[in-house]
Amino acid sequence: MTKKDEIITKIKKAIDELRPYINMDGGDITFIKYEDKIVYVKLLGACQACSFTDETLNNGLYESLKKEIPEIEGVINVKL
User: Is the whole-model pTM more than 0.85?
Assistant: First the structure.
């Protein structure tokens, strides 16, 4: 397993741990990719139009990921 694969596994685990909280508000989150120290996710459901999207990404997901994976420099919500 490469270093990148290990990081992706940790990212997916962190997302799975936060998912129940996001689901409680009618939303969901999907991992898209990890590239150049940035995590790309897609917020779904109620999270798409929520005014707290940036807070969820920066204070929730990013902070959780940063504790486990110091290499991560940001989280971006991909609008597909």
Answer: yes
